[in-house]
Amino acid sequence: MSSPTAVEPFPAHTSAASQIFTTVLSQGPLTRLEVARRAGLSAAAVTRAVRPLIEDGYLAEDADEGARPALGRPASLVRVNGGRALFIGVKATGDTIIGVLTDLRCRILVARHIPLPARDPKSVLGTAAELVRELLIEADGLGVRVAGLGMAVSGDVDRAEGVVRYSPFLEWRDVPLAELAAMTTGLPVTVDNDVRALTVAEQWFGAGVGLSGFAVVTVGAGIGCGLVVHGRVVAGAHGVAGEIGHVTVDPAGPRCHCGNRGCVEAIASDEAIVRQVSAATGVQVADAVEAAGLAHDGVAGAREVYARAGDAIGRAIATVANLLGPERVIISGEGLAAYDLFADHIRDAFATAAFGSAAQCDVRTRPLPFDEWARGAAATAIQSFIRSDAN
Amino acid sequence: MSSPTAVEPFPAHTSAASQIFTTVLSQGPLTRLEVARRAGLSAAAVTRAVRPLIEDGYLAEDADEGARPALGRPASLVRVNGGRALFIGVKATGDTIIGVLTDLRCRILVARHIPLPARDPKSVLGTAAELVRELLIEADGLGVRVAGLGMAVSGDVDRAEGVVRYSPFLEWRDVPLAELAAMTTGLPVTVDNDVRALTVAEQWFGAGVGLSGFAVVTVGAGIGCGLVVHGRVVAGAHGVAGEIGHVTVDPAGPRCHCGNRGCVEAIASDEAIVRQVSAATGVQVADAVEAAGLAHDGVAGAREVYARAGDAIGRAIATVANLLGPERVIISGEGLAAYDLFADHIRDAFATAAFGSAAQCDVRTRPLPFDEWARGAAATAIQSFIRSDAN
DNA sequence: CTCGTTATTTTCCGCTGTCAATGAAAGAAG
DNA sequence: CTTCTTTCATTGACAGCGGAAAATAACGAG
User: What is the DSSP code (8-state) at residue A161?
Assistant: First the structure.
């Protein structure tokens, strides 16, 4: 993250302060005592940390009108004042840039899409800057400052340095995106891998709240996986992590562009499904929607392809569960539009391939509107804003 | 861990103290300044933490006779005084209990094996107690107290509670081993899964020193995997973690006792290899040593079995590397006696199946004398001794 | 013997978070 | 209507930790 202009920073007076703020942010309105319990601190520490945050407008206090106990002084709830600061999240896909304006609680206020003329860094950056400008105008209309910009890119991204090491999709190598975007927009910029960004959003604002270990599996154009272990998002040694897409599911399966056979991605990605459905039915389908249409119409060959895909995904998830013992697996992604076609197969394959108590892992799905990718980017910006030592 | 008798605890005056001690313990003799750098603390903090530890005899100071610089005050090296305390590690296998007596630096001083009459908790505990008694006598001879007992068991073990949840191998369920052993021996007891224990030993005293993410893969009677992520050993949600043995490598492969087909363990474990070599050569081999003998003699069918086994292991390791991006993978285990038979195949399969920069992961092997399993158990005891909040 | 240089120690000093005591805001009891 | 009881929140005193900077130590080179 780099901050070119002197934006007033988050008043994280103490390390406990940011921890307390994070607790309130992700676990919703809580009484001070409850915050103390969950953060493992004394009530006194919470009181002290909360006061300046309320003064600065980051937290607010409500009476707890809900579950009032029969006895004792009623608790007052502390919640994050979402309107205190805004954030922008940007995600570049192959042909579009998606941008969202969110509040501090990562709720999407405005979403915008702009078609992408070309994929080179300059074009993408120019288009992204345009999008950011539009969203900054929206923010101005709200009269709230934008405190950070998050950018999510697929591939090998070094978040600490803000550099895109290698993105096969965009054909980028060693692009110092954070620096460039910070110069262009004047905002503090956080850059991260797209799936990891989505995982951060789940960890703080989604189905991963409060869990110390979980996995996010995205099904769509590619098959991705974000991992949280020991309460932290995993970023492996060489930037690569969560490459579930190239777990071998069937050494005799179709050839994958990575050079191997039977990768999950070669069986269950949109592209693979289109190819296989075309081959199996003799109908030349153009995209995943058409392929799903055939399957929904009951065409046996197409249904068979989805069955195999679901099986592959289920096995891959079981592999993750066997290795890491996550408390939960969240299946998400654009591919979920056709989720009914593989849901059962995923469940069956997972149940079969999960070993021992790994089978107890809670596997659930979550629809993923396309804007969510950009929201993930915004979540990384929020994370960076709250604690500069993020991740 | 439970401590029945009041054994004088480790004087971890501060949280930084144990961190500093751990740094010196695993990174060998270091100057104070170097310790400060590696632990991310100030030199003053190191000086302060070191003094009482030297007074208590846990640390010692040497002149740095080695690389003396041309200029300035020569540094003095701080090292752990291994002789300050002893530890016992015990590992139960199918037919034998192995016990080691180690010093504080986890160097094996005495190793003992006792045949195991039966596998029920009472028999195992009785035999283990006998072994511990023998080792305590050895320790008495050295005039140093034994500060802890570590026990390693295969299966689902809850280290925090000291309970063996389920060990298929021993056919145990919910055995409160730590409590039982503490009552029997009067020592503070730590109980952990055997592969995790081995991983702790590598992390503190072996090839994992200083790495924040690595994997230990054991090849032998079973195929196991210990993982370190974010500098901590992974223990999944339901005790199960690192189940690399049941990663599916070939859905058309041989049936595994877990019910699936083509698990790594069904292809590369000792038992699987014996079975496959027997089938391929027509010779009824009795154990892994005979199987390896045939292969070493150049019998094609046997060599082929090892090739497939190496391939399966290499793919499984690649899966781990793709998912987690470890800095290193350490291959170990009794199966390494025949390592030359699959080494090349492991490397080839890994190189093929590792995706992108995951292929840069350093894959190395390490011979594993059988005593090492017990040493791993001792390492967990040392860890518990140093910081009660271990893991 | 004095300097320059690097390692270690000492001397403050501020910050953080805990403890224990106190205040506040109810409903309950009389 | 007053006083208790109960629970949540706040305050003040305090101790410990670790950092910064200054002081000290140990050596080789002039």
Answer: T
In CATH, what number is assigned to the domain containing residue B32?
1.10.10.10
Structural domain for A89, as ranges:
84-201+372-386
Sheet bearing B30-31, strands edge to edge: B30-31, B76-80, B59-63
CA nearest to B32, candidates B70, B65, B68, B78:
B78
Give which of A320, A335, A328, A319 is closest to A219, Cα–Cα: A335
In Å, what is the CA distance from A15 to each residue of A10, A21, A24, A173, A386?
12, 10, 15, 36, 10
Using CA atoms, how far apart are residues A196 and B199, in angstroms rounded to an integer?
27
The pLDDT of residue A10: 81
Question: Smallest Cα–Cα separation from B287: which of B301, B299, B275?
Answer: B275
CB B264, CB B223: distance < 8 Å = yes
Domain co-membership, A136 together with A182: yes
Cross-strand bridge partners of residue B30:
B78
C-alpha to C-alpha distance for A324 and B225, rounded to whole angstroms: 10
Which residues 6+ apart lie within 8 Å of A19 measured at CB?
A: A39, A41
The structure tokens 């399993």 sit at: B373
DSSP tag of A234: -
Residues 200-229 of A with CB under 8 A from B: 213, 225, 227, 229
In 3-state terms chain A splits into helix, strand, coil percentages (rounded to 5) of 45, 25, 35
CATH number of the domain where residue A138 is located? 3.30.420.40
Q: Report d(CA A384, CA A379) in Å as an integer.
A: 9
Same domain, yes or no: A241 and A344: yes
CA B283 to C1' D12 (Å) is 84
Residue B1 within a domain: no
Whether A154 and A27 share a structural domain: no
pLDDT at B391: 38
CA proximity to B191, closest of B125, B127, B140: B125
Of A238, A320, A327, the CB nearest to B237: A327
| Strand D and A43 CB separated by under 7 Å | yes
DSSP state of B298: T
Contacts of residue B29, Cβ cutoff 8 Å, sequence gap at least 6: B62, B77, B78, B79
CA A334 to chain centre: 13
* CA–CA distance, A65 with B234 (Å, rounded to integer): 42
Contacts by A258-261, CB closer than 8 A, 24 or more apart: A258/B355, A259/B352, A260/B352, A260/B353
Q: Provide residues 75-104 of B with CB closer than 7 Å to any strand C atom.
A: 75-76
Total domains in the fold of chain A: 3
Element (H, E) at B232: strand B232-233
Q: Which nucleotides of strand D come closer than 7 angstroms to any CB of the protein? A: 5-12, 16-21, 25-29
DSSP label at B209? T
Burial A126-153 (b: 16+ CB within 10 A, else e): ebbbebbebbbeebeeeebebbbbbbbb
Q: What are phi and psi of B214, to 5 degrees?
A: -155, 170
Of the candidate ranges A116-130, A363-377, B8-22, B35-49, the one whose mean pLDDT is the lowest: B8-22
Mean pLDDT per block of 10 residues along chain B (391 residues) reads: 54 83 93 94 94 93 72 88 97 92 98 94 95 97 96 93 91 96 96 96 96 94 92 84 84 84 91 93 90 92 93 94 95 82 92 87 88 96 79 38
Q: Tokens 């034998």 identify what position?
A: B96
Question: Other CB atoms closer than 10 Å to residue B107's CB: what's the count?
Answer: 13
Token readout for B178 is: 């730590």
Both B283 and B333 in one domain: the answer is yes
> Any chain B CB within 8 A of the CB of A84?
no
